[in-house]
Write a structure and sequence with these properties.
Layout lengths: L1 E12 L8 H5 L1 H6 L4 E13 L5 E5 L6 H8 L7 E5 L4 E4 L12 H11 L4 H15 L14 H14 L4 E5 L7 H16 L3 E5 L3 H7 L2 E6 L2 E6 L1 H14 L8 E4 L4
Helix pairs in contact: 4-5, 4-6, 5-6
The protein binds adenosine-5'-triphosphate and magnesium ion.
């Protein structure tokens, strides 16, 4: 898997909504005093990255540094504005909590939809459905709408779907942190099996111990740029040094103001 010269921008745009609800009515005064903004934010800038097949990559960085954006680009949910991404094989992504689930549909319906999106046939999903639900240990909740699920239950279902579609690349954005100790242990066992079978894993985590324990290589993103890449222990050490020196005034975001039309 390789990224070459990848940049991704978002447009931040605030148009004041009409005061049509009681809550928006309460905010009318606040809106009238705020300047309107319309600018570009470069969530990622000029990122070159190679991940060797079968290895585990860890990504760290401050909030807003572009980690989730990078994972969304690799999983094909977003396209880069500049640069190219080459991914070989089936990608299963476990993105931020709840992403990819429809809140009103039941757990079972969401499993079927996600399975199809990840490339399984209906027959394959039917064959695996019980196993997916059993791994997540959600038998008694599986026909409830997922909006009623707890954070850990969302994660269990997402993880279970992701590992049952037999991906070549498994992408995990933080979510493991919401699992209880026993389920986290179960996830770890399954991930070890994946690693042993030659699956590539790309994980974002703020758990620096986990990052060092799991990853062959680490990448530090800062303000959308690749600040450092290499041995996990060395990257964590440099990152921690930066954290101790960091002040919120060090605005890491690269924004460009746009002229309003
Ligand atoms: N849909 C969007 N529209 C506009 N800006 C966005 C959007 N998604 C992300 N951003 C901006 O892009 C930047 C990178 O966001 P991203 O979610 O990739 O950060 P992150 O490193 O995953 O942060 P965290 O540690 O908080 O999860 C942030 O400044 C964020 O505000
Ligand atoms: Mg994120």
């Amino acid at each position: 898997m390789a990224l070459t010269g990848v940049s991704k921008k978002y447009r931040r745009h605030t148009d004041r909504p009409l005061a049509t609800t009681f809550k928006s009515y309460l905010l009318r005064d606040l809106w009238s005093r705020q300047p309107r903004r319309d600018d570009l934010i470069w969530a990622l800038r000029d990122v070159d990255l190679q991940v060797i097949e079968g290895t585990t990559l860890g990504i760290l960085g401050h909030n807003g540094s572009g980690k989730s954006t990078l994972l969304k680009l690799i999983s094909g949910i977003l396209r880069p504005d500049v640069g190219t991404i080459a991914v070989a094989g089936k990608v299963a992504a476990l993105l931020e909590l709840g992403a990819g689930f429809h809140p009103e549909l039941s757990g079972r319906e969401n499993v079927i939809i996600n399975g199809i999106i990840l490339g399984l046939s209906k027959k394959e999903i039917r064959a695996k459905l019980d196993e997916i639900v059993a791994f997540a240990e959600l038998e008694s909740y599986i026909d409830e709408p997922v909006r009623t699920y707890s954070s850990g239950m969302y994660m269990r279902l997402g993880f279970s779907v992701a590992v049952h579609v037999q991906p070549d690349i498994l992408i995990i954005d933080e979510v493991l942190a919401v699992g209880d100790a026993r389920f986290t242990q179960k996830c770890a066992e399954r991930m070890h099996r994946f690693k042993a079978a030659g699956c590539t894993i790309i994980m974002v985590t703020h758990d620096l111990r986990m990052l060092q324990e799991w990853c062959d290589k680490a990448v530090w993103l800062h303000g959308g740029r690749l600040q450092m890449e290499g041995d996990p222990a060395a990257v964590v050490e440099a990152y921690m040094r930066d954290v101790l020196l960091y002040t919120p005034q060090d605005e890491p975001y690269a924004t460009e103001r746009l002229a309003r039309p």
